[in-house]
Amino acid sequence: MAVKLLSFLGTNKYIPCRYELEGKKSRITHFIQAALVELLLPQFEEEKEVVVFTTEDAKEKNWEKGQGYEGLKDVLAVLSQEIGFTWKNVVIPEGFSSREAVDIFKAVFNTIEEGSKLIFDLTHSFRSLPFLAGLIINYARLLKGVEVAGVYYGAFEKLGRAWEVEEKWPDPAKRVAPVVSLNYFLELSDWLLAANIFLKAGDARPVADLAEKGFKKISDEKKREERKWRDLARELRNFAGEVATCRTLSLSGVSREERAPGHGYLWVHHRGTLERVKEKLAELGGERDPALELFAPVVDKIRGQFEAYGDDDIDNINHLIRWCLEHGLIMQGYTFLRENIITALCVINGFREYDEDDRELQGKIATVFARNLPEERWAPDLKERREEVTRLLTDPEMVAGYKLLNTVGAYRNDLDHAQFTKNSTTAESFKESLKEHLEQFTEFYNKHKPRQRHPYGPPVVVD
Asked: What predicted TM-score, i.e. pTM, was given to this entire model?
């Protein structure tokens, strides 16, 4: 993997000075390019190349020869013997038209190799070049898989106008111009892209990847609270995987009675990923580091996706189904909905919600209703609980719930069997159907949800 320093050279007469980056000063030079070579390239072990883009005018005035000083070509030739890199000049148009801007874009992009590391120097970028540089970075990341090691700007103007600088500091060694790192905005751009993927497509993995890395490019002034970011990354990664694979219990958590030695029975709630993600996001919402000021609204936007989740696991899965609807995860949405209806029917009617046999029983009751099966054709386990089943089948309120379970089950089966069913549905109709069925179930559950699901008082919450 090669390292490339990409820079632009102008036509001005440059005043010699020293440049400073992160406390390290360069030797005296007329050229920011030479300073960046000295300050940045020695840290890389890979092959290194410096590419300097010039117009024809700039090539004559500052590349081939200087204006009373050596041209940049000769300066780089000397430095290359010491640091070890190759260099070349690429001539670009002036950029006075859209066509020329496209030609500049192509000229820069064509110098970039697959998988290389890029360093951008924007000090002498002119006209549309700063804007184009940002586009080139993202274009090259996507199409050539490059890593951007840094973006920099040599702020000579902080010292003043050229004649003022020479007058104020006759000795060039005392003229020290800062090199401004723009890497903060690289990370901000990464977060914006990752957050957009999460908000639009529902994929939390890019956000998790960034949270896991922390904010290494922003500042070395103090140690970041990287543990919080790694914890968030872990939970977001869990969230993405559990939604994709419909892990209801892992997402919502499990509440059940457990024997506590010396205390009889307790109602214990084992927290799920939804609660932990919400907690980790809240931990990042307290006192804010000024260095992360621009990142805070991005994190707030992600946090907003989890604000609706509360204490009721059935309500939480309903919120998750709405989230699936918004992000086109229709198969997951229908799978979650069917199981959530079963959970609700168990809870409302006194069945064991985590017991596989009791859960299967709900589907069998729905089948009896849907097919109008006489009692002699009931499954054996239904006959064993004849009184309960008969009561449910003669209760109009509960019949509505079992009817919905049967309907949702048919849609879910159509998805699971990839349209190989007798009455398949078109792709376009699934989203509206899921929305309608979710609304029906929400209304049903809100009407019948028990006031108290914890027979032993408030649950003990554990991870």
From this structure: 0.78
